[in-house]
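>> received
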Amino acid sequence: MPVPDRREPVDRHLLRDTAYERLREAIVDGTLAAGEVLHDDELCEWLGVSRTPVRDALRRLADEGLVELAAQRYTRVASLSVRDVHEVVPLLAAVHGLATELAVPRLPRSAIRALHAANGELTEALRRGDGMAAYRADDDLHEVFVGACGNPEVAHVLDRLTPRLHTVECMCCDGRLPGGRFVAQHEALISRAETGDASGAASAARANWMTLGGVLVDALTPAT
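>> returned
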Protein backbone atom coordinates (compact mmCIF):
# COMPACT_ATOMS: atom_id res chain seq x y z
CA MET A 1 0.00 0.00 0.00
CA PRO A 2 1.24 3.59 -0.56
CA VAL A 3 2.78 5.54 2.29
CA PRO A 4 0.00 7.55 4.02
CA ASP A 5 -0.01 11.26 3.31
CA ARG A 6 -0.86 12.12 6.93
CA ARG A 7 2.14 12.30 9.23
CA GLU A 8 1.69 10.65 12.62
CA PRO A 9 2.00 13.03 15.61
CA VAL A 10 5.24 11.48 16.85
CA ASP A 11 6.39 14.60 18.67
CA ARG A 12 3.18 14.76 20.69
CA HIS A 13 3.60 11.17 21.85
CA LEU A 14 7.20 11.80 22.84
CA LEU A 15 6.20 14.89 24.81
CA ARG A 16 3.43 12.97 26.55
CA ASP A 17 5.82 10.20 27.55
CA THR A 18 8.42 12.68 28.76
CA ALA A 19 5.83 14.52 30.85
CA TYR A 20 4.59 11.25 32.30
CA GLU A 21 8.07 10.02 33.20
CA ARG A 22 9.11 13.28 34.88
CA LEU A 23 5.87 13.62 36.81
CA ARG A 24 6.00 9.98 37.92
CA GLU A 25 9.58 10.37 39.10
CA ALA A 26 8.69 13.52 41.05
CA ILE A 27 5.79 11.76 42.77
CA VAL A 28 7.74 8.60 43.56
CA ASP A 29 10.70 10.44 45.11
CA GLY A 30 8.46 12.83 47.06
CA THR A 31 9.32 16.00 45.16
CA LEU A 32 5.57 16.30 44.61
CA ALA A 33 4.17 15.45 48.03
CA ALA A 34 1.06 13.44 48.83
CA GLY A 35 -2.03 15.65 48.73
CA GLU A 36 -0.29 18.40 46.76
CA VAL A 37 -2.64 20.12 44.31
CA LEU A 38 -1.34 20.09 40.75
CA HIS A 39 -2.05 23.06 38.49
CA ASP A 40 -1.78 22.59 34.75
CA ASP A 41 -0.15 25.96 34.10
CA GLU A 42 2.57 25.38 36.69
CA LEU A 43 3.27 21.89 35.37
CA CYS A 44 3.41 23.12 31.78
CA GLU A 45 5.94 25.78 32.73
CA TRP A 46 8.04 23.34 34.74
CA LEU A 47 8.05 20.63 32.05
CA GLY A 48 8.27 23.00 29.10
CA VAL A 49 5.34 21.41 27.28
CA SER A 50 1.77 22.34 26.36
CA ARG A 51 -1.36 21.42 28.30
CA THR A 52 -2.27 18.38 26.18
CA PRO A 53 0.72 16.15 27.05
CA VAL A 54 0.43 17.22 30.69
CA ARG A 55 -3.24 16.20 30.86
CA ASP A 56 -2.47 12.93 29.07
CA ALA A 57 0.28 12.20 31.59
CA LEU A 58 -1.96 13.04 34.55
CA ARG A 59 -4.70 10.72 33.31
CA ARG A 60 -2.16 7.91 32.99
CA LEU A 61 -0.85 8.57 36.49
CA ALA A 62 -4.42 8.58 37.80
CA ASP A 63 -4.96 5.17 36.22
CA GLU A 64 -1.89 3.95 38.09
CA GLY A 65 -3.15 5.29 41.41
CA LEU A 66 -0.55 8.05 41.80
CA VAL A 67 -2.83 11.01 41.04
CA GLU A 68 -6.43 11.80 42.00
CA LEU A 69 -8.60 13.58 39.44
CA ALA A 70 -11.96 15.21 40.16
CA ALA A 71 -13.38 17.09 37.17
CA GLN A 72 -13.72 20.83 37.76
CA ARG A 73 -12.57 20.38 41.37
CA TYR A 74 -8.96 19.30 41.76
CA THR A 75 -5.99 17.34 40.50
CA ARG A 76 -3.70 16.23 43.29
CA VAL A 77 -1.02 13.74 44.22
CA ALA A 78 -2.64 10.66 45.74
CA SER A 79 -2.09 9.93 49.42
CA LEU A 80 -0.97 6.33 49.61
CA SER A 81 -1.60 4.09 52.59
CA VAL A 82 -1.59 0.54 53.90
CA ARG A 83 -4.45 -0.22 51.52
CA ASP A 84 -2.18 0.42 48.55
CA VAL A 85 0.32 -2.11 49.90
CA HIS A 86 -2.43 -4.71 50.31
CA GLU A 87 -3.62 -4.04 46.75
CA VAL A 88 -0.30 -3.94 44.94
CA VAL A 89 2.07 -6.33 46.70
CA PRO A 90 0.10 -9.58 46.11
CA LEU A 91 -0.09 -8.72 42.42
CA LEU A 92 3.63 -7.99 42.29
CA ALA A 93 4.31 -11.26 44.10
CA ALA A 94 2.29 -13.20 41.53
CA VAL A 95 3.84 -11.52 38.49
CA HIS A 96 7.39 -11.73 39.82
CA GLY A 97 6.78 -15.37 40.72
CA LEU A 98 5.80 -16.03 37.12
CA ALA A 99 8.82 -14.10 35.81
CA THR A 100 11.11 -16.11 38.06
CA GLU A 101 9.66 -19.46 36.99
CA LEU A 102 9.99 -18.55 33.32
CA ALA A 103 13.50 -17.16 33.76
CA VAL A 104 15.23 -19.91 35.75
CA PRO A 105 15.69 -22.33 32.80
CA ARG A 106 17.10 -19.45 30.75
CA LEU A 107 19.52 -17.89 33.25
CA PRO A 108 23.16 -17.63 32.12
CA ARG A 109 26.01 -17.70 34.64
CA SER A 110 26.30 -13.93 34.34
CA ALA A 111 22.74 -13.61 35.66
CA ILE A 112 23.57 -15.76 38.68
CA ARG A 113 26.53 -13.50 39.40
CA ALA A 114 24.26 -10.47 39.10
CA LEU A 115 21.85 -12.02 41.63
CA HIS A 116 24.65 -12.58 44.15
CA ALA A 117 25.92 -9.03 43.58
CA ALA A 118 22.48 -7.51 44.17
CA ASN A 119 22.04 -9.46 47.39
CA GLY A 120 25.46 -8.31 48.52
CA GLU A 121 24.45 -4.72 47.86
CA LEU A 122 21.25 -5.28 49.83
CA THR A 123 23.22 -6.67 52.78
CA GLU A 124 25.55 -3.67 52.77
CA ALA A 125 22.65 -1.18 52.44
CA LEU A 126 20.88 -2.75 55.41
CA ARG A 127 24.09 -2.59 57.42
CA ARG A 128 24.29 1.15 56.72
CA GLY A 129 20.58 1.65 57.38
CA ASP A 130 20.18 3.06 53.86
CA GLY A 131 16.55 2.32 53.03
CA MET A 132 16.45 3.54 49.45
CA ALA A 133 19.66 1.69 48.56
CA ALA A 134 18.20 -1.47 50.08
CA TYR A 135 15.01 -1.17 48.05
CA ARG A 136 17.02 -0.47 44.87
CA ALA A 137 19.15 -3.57 45.46
CA ASP A 138 15.99 -5.64 45.92
CA ASP A 139 14.64 -4.24 42.65
CA ASP A 140 17.92 -5.06 40.89
CA LEU A 141 17.77 -8.66 42.07
CA HIS A 142 14.23 -9.29 40.88
CA GLU A 143 14.87 -7.39 37.64
CA VAL A 144 17.38 -10.09 36.68
CA PHE A 145 14.50 -12.57 36.45
CA VAL A 146 12.22 -10.12 34.65
CA GLY A 147 14.90 -9.43 32.06
CA ALA A 148 15.51 -13.13 31.44
CA CYS A 149 11.93 -14.42 31.49
CA GLY A 150 11.38 -13.99 27.74
CA ASN A 151 7.91 -12.46 28.07
CA PRO A 152 7.80 -8.69 27.43
CA GLU A 153 4.25 -8.48 28.77
CA VAL A 154 5.59 -9.15 32.26
CA ALA A 155 7.59 -5.92 32.14
CA HIS A 156 4.55 -4.02 30.86
CA VAL A 157 2.41 -5.20 33.77
CA LEU A 158 5.13 -4.38 36.29
CA ASP A 159 5.64 -0.92 34.80
CA ARG A 160 2.07 -0.09 35.79
CA LEU A 161 2.20 -1.59 39.29
CA THR A 162 5.70 -0.81 40.51
CA PRO A 163 5.58 3.02 40.75
CA ARG A 164 2.96 2.85 43.50
CA LEU A 165 5.18 0.46 45.45
CA HIS A 166 8.23 2.69 44.96
CA THR A 167 6.26 5.67 46.28
CA VAL A 168 5.37 3.74 49.43
CA GLU A 169 8.99 2.58 49.82
CA CYS A 170 10.13 6.21 49.64
CA MET A 171 7.64 7.04 52.40
CA CYS A 172 9.04 4.20 54.55
CA CYS A 173 12.77 4.39 53.82
CA ASP A 174 13.56 6.15 57.12
CA GLY A 175 11.48 3.72 59.15
CA ARG A 176 11.52 -0.03 59.50
CA LEU A 177 13.60 -1.84 56.86
CA PRO A 178 13.82 -5.46 55.68
CA GLY A 179 16.33 -7.35 57.82
CA GLY A 180 18.27 -10.59 57.85
CA ARG A 181 15.21 -12.62 56.93
CA PHE A 182 15.01 -10.72 53.65
CA VAL A 183 18.63 -11.47 52.80
CA ALA A 184 18.12 -15.15 53.70
CA GLN A 185 15.08 -15.35 51.43
CA HIS A 186 17.17 -13.98 48.59
CA GLU A 187 19.88 -16.55 49.28
CA ALA A 188 17.29 -19.35 49.12
CA LEU A 189 15.88 -17.89 45.90
CA ILE A 190 19.33 -17.71 44.30
CA SER A 191 20.22 -21.21 45.43
CA ARG A 192 17.09 -22.65 43.81
CA ALA A 193 17.74 -20.68 40.64
CA GLU A 194 21.31 -22.02 40.48
CA THR A 195 20.08 -25.62 40.70
CA GLY A 196 17.39 -25.07 38.06
CA ASP A 197 14.48 -25.45 40.49
CA ALA A 198 12.09 -23.11 38.67
CA SER A 199 8.98 -23.80 40.77
CA GLY A 200 10.93 -23.59 44.02
CA ALA A 201 12.53 -20.31 42.96
CA ALA A 202 9.11 -18.93 42.00
CA SER A 203 7.74 -19.87 45.42
CA ALA A 204 10.71 -18.18 47.11
CA ALA A 205 10.19 -15.04 45.02
CA ARG A 206 6.52 -14.82 45.98
CA ALA A 207 7.34 -15.30 49.66
CA ASN A 208 9.99 -12.58 49.43
CA TRP A 209 7.52 -10.09 47.98
CA MET A 210 4.95 -10.87 50.66
CA THR A 211 7.63 -10.31 53.31
CA LEU A 212 8.33 -6.90 51.81
CA GLY A 213 4.61 -6.14 51.97
CA GLY A 214 4.59 -6.97 55.68
CA VAL A 215 7.56 -4.67 56.30
CA LEU A 216 5.85 -1.78 54.51
CA VAL A 217 2.54 -2.35 56.33
CA ASP A 218 4.38 -2.29 59.67
CA ALA A 219 6.24 0.89 58.72
CA LEU A 220 2.98 2.63 57.72
CA THR A 221 1.01 1.51 60.76
CA PRO A 222 1.15 4.02 63.64
CA ALA A 223 2.50 2.65 66.90
CA THR A 224 -0.13 2.22 69.62
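>> The beta strands are 67-70, 74-77.
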